[in-house]
Design brief:
The protein is built from 13 helices and 7 strands. By secondary structure, the protein is α+β, with helices and mostly antiparallel strands. It has 3 domains: 100 residues, no CATH class; 126 residues, Alpha-Beta Plaits, CATH 3.30.70; 186 residues. The strands form 2 sheets. Strands 1, 4, 5, 6 and 7 form a 5-stranded antiparallel beta sheet that branches. The chain has a two-stranded antiparallel ribbon with strand order 2-3.
Length: 459
Amino acid sequence: MNTLDPHNGGNGGASQQTTLREFSAILFRRKWIVIGLFAVTTATVLAISFTTPMAYVSSGSVYVKRGERESILDPGRRVLDDWEQAFGTEMEIVKSAPVMRRAREILAAEATGDTLQIDAGSVDAEVKGKSNVMAIGYIDADPDVARRACDAVLRAYVEFRERDFTPSYPREFFKSELAQVETDLERWRGLRRDFAGRAGVVNVDEQNRQLISQLALLEGRGSEAQADLAEAETVLRQMRAVESDPDADLAAFSALFANEMSLLELKRRIIDQEASLAALRERLREEAVSVVNSRKTLETLKGLLGRELQARLDMASTRAEQIRARLGALDRDADAIRAELRTMPEKGTRLALMDREIKILEQRQMELTEKSDQALVTENTSSSINVMLLEPASWPRPVNARDYVRLALAPVFSIVVGIGLAFFVDGLDLTVRTARHAEAVAELPVLATLTDRRRRSLR
């Protein structure tokens, strides 16, 4: 049995008409969802757009040379961290208190009226790609304030980097250090000079060698003097023995006066005279003239010998005294040298300490002079630029201008979202409202609908 209305033009037309009707019905039933979402979205967009104040941003760029100079003596640089850490640190330095303070000082120096106040929160910095160029910007509602503040921040950052991250020639440091070293050096030299003058030492090692050489010489001379003294004393004793015994034999007498020919001749004549006297006595009496004359001659010769012996005895005694005096002088000189040698280690130690201090100060003076010259040469021959300004503060541009196209797109998209939400909410409703819903629930075809007829009959 045909359950379709022949006046509807077939099943396909009835289904299409029902679908459009249902679509319109759903939109009509859920119209407040679409309208409410559209109204809320439109009001929110308009409120945000018209309540957000207009702001302007001015920006510039700087080139940052990575790494730090190791010292003022070396023009090379040392990179301690990677790219991200380095520029993350630089971006924080831009917003740091010293840079902000310097920027405020720059603005205060250039201000003709009210001083501008820089807010660190309005400063922004970013790296251009993966490069060593960093952009610095400042945002403010007043374009003139934005440009002047951006220029001040750029200048303050460049000055801060050049002043605090670039070591310069420390003229005052080297000057004060060299002056202190020269003062200490002159003081130690004066102390050494005074001590050397009082102690009578200049070069301890050389003086030790000289003193030891002098002591050895004096000891050698002393030994010779001791031998001479022993010899002189022996001769003196023997001469005294000869003096006390005029009849001593000629051999002993000759040993004492081997080089005295006159005494030997006199002694020989005495012996001959004694022999002659003995011969005369054998032939003549004692009262004989020849015996008397011979005896007188013998006495005369003995007197001459006695006087000569006394003279020689006095000379031997004097020589012995001279040798003793010379030996005493040699001993005193040797004792003085030994006493001085005993004091040389202490003097040498004190002089060594002073010389060490002087050498250390002289070496430090030389090193400071060399480092000063090297630092000065490095400063004048190597680039000390850490940051270079590439672009000054640009003319301010608006950052939140009203884009009416975008403002219109938000409500349009809210309508689309509202329609989708309406269908979703309607799909959650299980009420049977259309013929298709009835066919789906009863699993039977709908022969006719009575909604329109019932309305007309009610009329």
